[in-house]
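User: Um, any thoughts?
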Amino acid sequence: MLTVWTSTSEVLEQWFTEIRPQFGLQNNPAARPSDRGL
């Protein structure tokens, strides 16, 4: 069973709009960078 909290959508929105772009991966389709840079 997958548990989803009520704040999940807000956290994901913040990740994709504010935090993830700081990694310089705009053209990378992965939701999060790995240790291999993928």
Summary: The mean pLDDT is 80. DSSP finds one helix and no strands in the chain.
